[in-house]
Amino acid sequence: MSRRGWLLLGAFVAPLAIRTLWFYQGGYTRREPVSTPDYTALRQASPPLGAAVSPAPPSPSADRVVLVDWAHQNRFDVTELEVLGAALGALGARFEVVSAGYDFSALPLEERLKYAAAYVVAAPTQEFTTSEVQAVTRFVERGGRLLVISDPTRGSAFFDIFGFYGGPAFGDVAVANVLLAPHDLAFSEDYLYNLRRNEGNFRNVFLADFADLPITQGLSEVALYGARSVRTRSGIPVLVGDGYTYSSRTDRGGDLAAAALSPQGDALALGDLTLLTPPYHEVADNGRFILNLADFLLGGERLRHLEDFPYLFTQDVEIVESQALPLSADHLLALAAAQDALGPLGRQVRISAAASEGMDHVEFALFDSAEDVQSTLEALGVVLPADSDENKLTLPGFPPFDPTGVGVLLISHDEDGTTLLILAETDTDLQSTFGLVTRRDLSPCFVVGAAAICQVGAADFGFEPNFDFTEPDITDFGTGLFLPTPTPTPFPIPTP
To answer: Using CA atoms, how far apart are residues 137 and 124, in angstroms rounded to an integer?
Structure first.
């Protein structure tokens, strides 16, 4: 190799040799063995688990349905509510999912609420219509229970047609608050956090301050996994954080509630959905809270009104024959219609000469011969024309009125069951009124709670109509236009 080659080789090897001699100072032998952790003694951190709980035995007469909303682009899967569903099933109730689809034979929400005990709405992102909000509000007023759940971890992101992120598009707070507004409840657009004590993450908060209510019985601490705060003016905060539990919206704390009840105690806003789902239902007293939640959903005293027909009956139905309406071939169509309406609900219909125990009843009476139902009428506050000085009929919620051409529907509830009482002035009007019920057509009726008056005959309004049916002379119009007078449509009189 030439001198030039040795120089090049030396220039390449020399830096390597210098670095090796500088950093490498020979072999190393440790005189003592390396200490390692005692891996067998290590324990993985885990949240505190609650004690095993079991629901109370179901009521023998329980036959209740809890509706679960899945028709407003709800950001959850129905299977996530399996723990709550199991608790309801142990109490004799069942879930029924209200989903959005193209099955036009499915019952609308307002119709389903007629037979439901409670309505559960979780993480909705599609607005409720005005009619839906009104139907839910009336449902709660009649003793139904409402549970609305929001969750800051549930949502969707918006991307434009080019795939660029456009920010969050769907949020459940605004949608849920519209449903909660009539009940003095509202969610905040935030999440709760606690930096001092939490369950592995600052957003996983422990709450131990509870209102003294049946829904908090047996609780010492619950764990929430991303919860919104709930605001109410006159309602009842249910699950409240300590002084170190803050809102992400204000970074302030103190008396922040993750759940609250309406002033009447029939609607509940819950700021976390995750605590209801496995395995988080086993942490702390979450399992006990879920059982209490099931009791809450089934704890309403559901008042059945006339618009709930045919769901106002909870037992088999007995149509009681009476002197007011001796059953004959003329009534078979109405009886068949009643059977068709009640049959799909699992209610048997039978005819009897006298009322039996353990059944709901349909009874008839004429205004001038109502001796058989006099005690029921007195309990409802009904005054018949024969008992009035002015020959007027008086019902609760109505002023005295002329009974001519009027059919009356009354509902009586007692410990034995439900009785639908039908009254009218004549046998024909009685049949027509019963026909309205079996056809589920109360459009000719004015309904106030458990009572209704229906026009089933010719009514005398005390004046003569003054309609001019003569076509006008076109020469009377300067423009030469012919403007005929509309022909009035007579009021339809229902037939049995």
So the answer is: 17
Q: Class of 306-455 per CATH?
A: alpha beta
Tell me if 91 sits within 8 A of 62, measured CB to CB.
yes
CA distances from 164 to 125, 154, 168, 171 (A): 22, 21, 12, 19
Q: Which of 274, 268, 356 is nearest to 320 (CA)?
A: 356
371 vs 362: CA distance, rounded Å: 16
Residues in CB range of 235: below 8 A, 6 or more apart: 183, 184, 185, 260, 261, 262, 263
**Whole-number CA gyration radius for the chain:** 35
Whether the CB-CB separation of 53 and 287 falls below 8 Å is answered with yes
pLDDT digits (tens, 9 = 90+) for 402-414: 888 888 888 888 7
Pairing of β 192-194 and β 245-247: antiparallel
Residue 451: what residue type? A
| Closest residue by Cα to residue 280 from 289, 271, 268 | 289
Q: What angle do CA 476, 481, 487 make, to 5 degrees?
A: 85
121 exposed, middle or buried (CB, 10 Å; 0-12, 13-18, 19+)? buried
pLDDT digits (tens, 9 = 90+) for 436-476: 887 777 888 888 878 888 888 765 433 344 434 344 443 44
**Placement of tokens 């806003």 in the chain:** 269
**Which tokens go with 242?**
């300590």
d(CA 142, CA 15): 91
AA letter at 433: T
Classify residue 280 by burial, with Cβ atoms within 10 Å: 0-12, 13-18, 19+.
Answer: buried
Cα–Cα distance for residue pair 393/285, rounded to 1 Å: 57
Residue among 79, 122, 93 nearest 270 (CA): 122
Q: How far apart are CA 127 and CA 21, in angstroms?
A: 75
Interior CA angle at 97 toward 88 and 108, to 5°? 125
CB atoms within 10 A of CB 242: 17
> Which structure tokens are listed for 195?
């930096």
Q: Where in the chain is the domain with CATH 3.40.50.880?
A: 64-297
pTM: 0.75
Distance CA 144, CA 264 (A): 12
| All CATH 3.30.379 domain ranges in the chain, comma separated | 306-455
- In contact, 385 and 400? CB cutoff 8 Å: no
Asked if 409 and 451 count as a contact pair (C-beta separation under 8 A), the reply is: yes
Q: What is the total residue count of the chain?
A: 496
| CA–CA separation, 412 and 297 (whole Å) | 25
Give the span between the Cα atoms of 262 and 146, in whole angstroms: 10
Q: Which CATH class is domain 64-297?
A: alpha beta
pLDDT in tens, 18-59: 887 777 766 667 677 777 877 777 776 677 777 666 665 555
